[in-house]
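dumping this here before i forget
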Amino acid sequence: MSDRITQAHLVDSIAEALQYISYYHPPDFITAMADAYNAEQSPSAKAAIAQILINSRMCATGHRPICQDTGVANVFVEVGVEARTDWTRPMQDMIDDAVRRAWLLETNPLRASVVVDPLDTRRNSGDNTPAMVQTELVAGNSVHVTVSSKGGGSENKTQFAVLNPSASVADWVVDRVAQMGAGWCPPGILGIGVGGSVDKAMAMAKASLNEAIDITYLRARGPQNRIEEMRLDILDRINALGIGAQGLGGITTALDVKIATFPTHAASMPVALIPNCAATRHIDFMLTGDGPATFAPPDLSLWPEIEGQGPIGRHISLDDLTDDVLASLTPGETLLLSGKLYTGRDAAHKRMVETLRAGGELPVDLRDRALYYVGPVDAIPGEVIGPAGPTTSTRMDKFTEEVLAATGLKLMIGKAERGAEAIDAIRRHGAVYLIAVGGAAYLVSQAIKAARVVAYGDLGMESIREFTVEDMPVTVAVDTKGNSIHETGPRQWART
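structure:
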């Protein structure tokens, strides 16, 4: 019989695991991304994968977050029915203690993204609690814990349907991925839950994302059942869509497809689809009573050597954004930005538009300036700013026309595609939309040489900041004529 598994064992282990996955990708993910990099034929997609891998290695050595969206803590706990514990508190309370400790660690603070009261004030909890917890009683005398951090961009692309029993799950998944766009930051993993009930299908899909990437082994060995056949079929069909890394067009959109099933009602076929982004973060461990879990760092030799790691692209001054300069930018072109830009995402846009509608003046002058959709991680000593990668731009689409018309803003920087309404506004106002690579937040932050909050400080990570940047790498996504790389790129690389 094992010794007691204490509250401290559980809390200490989860807190350490959350810190660990904030800066270490799982080894299988690094290997899969390296394979994708070596195989990629699209120059734009290959450059994006290179940034993700370079960023990943920088985070592994610097112990700073892979992505500015350090995610919501998802913790899966399987408690053996014979496990001896000294627990006297609810599981949620113990895990929230671990999350609080991990997010507020002074040497590597993580970005608090959880808001309480989602229907009203949406006040930030400040410490990323509460965690999303799933608990199950299983056979045995140990406790198995899987810890993951799930970002909002990929979570927001979750799909669900109750299909007819005769429908094709594969067809539905491929169609949904084709419609999802690039907001989930591919390449990543797709988790699919089939059967059970509505909630069971979602839970299975989420849990399947924590399984090891094994599709290369499966393809070499050959499928041995219907689920394995479906995994290969769905993966091949999705990659044939040509969406590619960051939606720029390429041969790899998904690295693996996971499918979990459960018995269901004869009249139903619930299907949940949850993507995991290029900031895939998870680890599992077992507690047996001999102390908290320990985690060994991955071998740095896992990361591939990438040639030409210095900044490459056309130099653009953000302090001289003339109409001629803007008109000369073409979709797919790589730029290196230098000068001053402002930051602002959902909450800041909402407040700016409310101010404009009320006839007020904005606290910053955006005329002929650039606005970066970002909510950075807080800096630690020696840093100007913490990891500062882009957020999904489509959430700003409904504000774009009013902001461009009222302010004279020239450049917007985010990630993923823009909707038709926003593209039309960009074209009418002669503006340009650029993308930074989602999943390369620490790399991007190295280009930021100065940062200060200039407005809406009460919004925390969503406040408006002024950045001074030097050679910040971006890609032109929508030009002044409304041409979008997220439309032309996938079309070019689609394989029918």
